[in-house]
Amino acid sequence: MRVASGRVRFSRFYKRLEDLMKKGDIVAVEKLAKEQKGIYGRVMEALINRYKMLGGKVDLFTLKDDLNETMNEQMAIESSLLERNLIVMATIGSISTMTGLLGTVIGMIRCFAALSLVGATAATASQQLAVGIAEALVNTAGGLIVAIVAIIFYNYFTSKIDLFSFNMEAVSREFIAGVIGLAR
At 132, is the pLDDT very low, low, confident or very high (cuts 50, 70, 90)? Predict the structure, then answer.
């Protein structure tokens, strides 16, 4: 996640962007985006490139629409890059509980098998029963531990991605508002 956020903290990056947009210094904004080297910089570069391509050839309404479309496209690209490994954590969280349940079922089968031993002494049967129950509980605990850890990390990274998405949109909207202000 550190690489995604870039070299400059978001709050500093956003403040510098705000100041530069108030001055109307698109060249400095482009330099700031290149220095960022993270998702915010890449979103800004996409917006700047689109703005340059349009180069005053369109009305304000079209400019705003085109830049919003560019923002949405770039945010979709960046979000998918951030989310690409979340499916692994979600799968681990889901499957580990099922694996623990499977171990529980196998342990319980052992318990019932121990109870059905013909000719076994009570001590042997109860010993086998205890082994089966222990196996069931160990598997349940193992599955739950893995699931809990996976879910904690999944939720942590999901909240980070949500924050990145919110910040990407804030950066984009600041740039678009600044450009529209310049074009008026």
Answer: confident
